[in-house]
Amino acid sequence: MKVLVTIKLPPEVLSLIAREHQVEGYDADPPLARRQLLKSITDKEGLLCTITDRIDAEVLDRAPALKVIANYGVGFEHLDIEAATRRGIMVTNTPGVLTETTADAAFALILAAARRVVEGDRRVREGEFRYWAPFLFLGQEVHGKTLGIIGMGRIGQAVARRARGFAMKIIYHSRTRLAPAGEQELQASAVPLETLLREADFVTLHVPLTPQTRHLMGSRELEMMKPTAYLINTARGPVVDEAVLVAALRQGVIRGAGLDVYEREPQLTPGLTDLDNVVLLPHVGSATVETRTRMAEMAAENLLVGLRGDHPPNCLNWAEIQEKK
Ligand code: NAP
C-alpha cells in the first residue's frame, strides 16, 4: 500500500514500514507544507504524521483511499477524529511511552523557574558573577512546597511521583478523580480548581487541549494564584491565555512561569522573551533520544497493524468504527 510519512523517522523504523509498503517520506525538519500534504495524500492508504500536520476534513476529502492515520505523539487535537471515523479511518497515537520524559521536563521547568537556573546561567556568561553574596540570586524552595496538578492522567501522576521525592504536598484537580488507592499511593488530595489555584506554590498543567480546557488559565485563574506561585505548562499552549499570562508575569500577579508550549507556537506573544521570570523551552517535553525512538516505533507499529486490517494497539476510534460496520 502507499504510505505518506510527514516527519523524519529513525532509518530502522522507516525501513520497517518500507518492507511492507511503498513509502513517500519527508526527510526535513520544518513541518511539511500544507499544500504538499494536500497533494501527497491523494493516493495514500496510510499516513504517519504529527502535531504540525492539521488533519481535517479538507485533507480527508482528498484521501479517498486512507485507512490509517498514525500520529507520532499523544495529543491529538490537530486530528479531526470524528471526520476520520465517519470515513472509517483508524486514528492512533503514542500514549505512555513519553509519560516519564514529559514529567521530567515539567520538573525541569519547576526547578529552573524557582531556582532561576536559566537567568543565572545567562548572568554568568555575561560576566555578572563577580562575587558571592548572601542576597544575590535568591530563588524559591521547591522541596516541601505545595504542588497543584491540573489533569491527573498519565503525565500528571508521573509528576506527582517525582514531587513525592521532594517532600511536596500534592493537590490535584482532574475531570475524573483517582481511585482511593491511587490517591493513597501518590499522597495526593483532590480539590476544586479554585482551592488548587489559591493554595499551590506551583501549578502544573497536564490536561489535553479540548474545547473545555482552552484558556483554562485566564486572568481570573491567574489572579487566584498566590503572588509567589509559578505556572508550569507542558500540556498545550492554548490551555493558557498567553497575553494575559505575559501581563501577569510583568505585573507580578504571579512570580514566574515555565513554558514548553505556546498558544500560537512557534510564534510567541510579544513581551514574553523580555521577561526574566519565565523559562522558555521549544516544545521539547518528549524530546530525548530514547523517547523519540520509542514514539517512532509505536507510531509505525500502529500504522502497520492498522494497514493489515487488525486492531492497532493505540487506536482512538476502534469501537466507533466497528459499530459503523
Ligand atoms: P492523559 O493520561 O489522557 O491525562 C489527561 C488528564 O487530564 C486526564 O486525567 C483527564 O481526565 C484530565 N482532563 C481532561 N479534560 C479535563 C478537564 N476539562 N478538566 C480537568 N481535567 C481534565 O494524557 P497524558 O498522556 O497525561 O497527556 C496529557 C497532555 O500532555 C496531552 O494531551 C498532550 O497535549 C500533552 N503532552 C505534551 C507534551 C510536550 O511535549 N510538551 C508531551 C506529551 C504530552 P480523564 O481521566 O477524565 O480523561
Radius of gyration: 22 Å
DSSP helical segment count: 13
Give me the side-by-side strand order of the main sheet: 8-7-6-9-10-11-12
Please estimate the helix content: 25-40%
> How widely separated are the two ends?
22 Å
Total beta strand runs: 12
Low-pLDDT windows of residues: none
Second CATH tier, the architecture of the largest domain: 3-Layer(aba) Sandwich
Question: How would you characterize this protein structure?
Answer:
- The chain has 325 residues and is α/β, with parallel strands linked by helices.
- The protein folds into 2 domains: 2-96 and 289-324, NAD(P)-binding Rossmann-like Domain (Rossmann fold), CATH 3.40.50; 99-280, Rossmann fold, CATH 3.40.50.
- Helix content is 37%, strand content 14%.
- The strands form 2 sheets. Strands 8-7-6-9-10-11-12 form a 7-stranded parallel beta sheet, sandwiched between helices.
- α1 runs parallel beside α12 (289-307) and α5 crosses α7 (154-165).
- The longest helix has 19 residues, at 289-307.
- It binds NADP nicotinamide-adenine-dinucleotide phosphate.
